[in-house]
Design a protein that fits this description.
mainly alpha
Length: about 180
């Protein structure tokens, strides 16, 4: 099964609210969501990387945090699969020059650049695009809006120091999932 097929199967199985099929139709026919990269040079910087990343987020979110008697399959599918919808029609294919270390020669290699035709932010843009077709619950909109957390400096620290990522996740889980206010 391709990533696109798996994405559509998960989405259609779990997301049934009004407008969801129109959203999928728009994603499939008017955007490059299923063929777009997830970034220019980092995670998923390849054709189909955005869809693959969305599926990976779904697997982690569902596999790590889903509790059947407490959580909604629909909410988890919406948040994970659509959190980066803002990246559809966002990247442009091109080339960049890279020095070949073996030969010392400069070579053109395929690359992506950002071509943001609707500069509306990241998470908020995903929320806006989703809500053109279907309503989000407040919890879903907030989760999608803030899924990236902090700044680019934070991203740099996380990339360089994996312990910082692990501590961040552990602190978030302890603070918001394990502990009650006032304890």
């Amino acid at each position: 099964m391709t990533d696109r097929e798996e994405f559509l199967e998960i989405f259609r199985t779990h997301v049934t609210r009004p407008g969801s099929e129109k959203l999928l139709d728009w994603m499939d026919s008017k955007t490059d969501f299923f063929s777009a990269p997830a970034s220019t040079r980092f995670h998923g910087a390849c054709d189909g990387g955005l869809c693959a990343h969305s599926l990976n987020v779904y697997r982690v979110l569902h596999g790590t945090f889903f509790t059947p008697d407490k959580d909604s399959e629909e909410t988890f599918a919406i948040c994970a699969l659509l959190h980066d919808l803002c990246k559809a029609n966002f990247y442009k294919k091109g080339t960049r020059n890279v020095k070949n270390e073996a030969t010392g020669q400069w070579e053109k290699v395929p690359s992506y650049s950002v071509e943001d035709m609707f500069p509306y932010g990241h998470g908020e843009k995903s929320v806006f695009l989703i809500e053109r077709f279907m309503k989000l619950k407040v919890e879903e909109a907030v989760a999608i809006r803030w899924h990236r957390g902090g700044s680019f400096a934070l991203s740099g620290a996380f990339e360089k120091y994996p312990l910082a990522v692990k501590l961040h996740i552990a602190d978030l889980e302890a603070t918001y999932l394990l502990e009650q206010r006032g304890e």
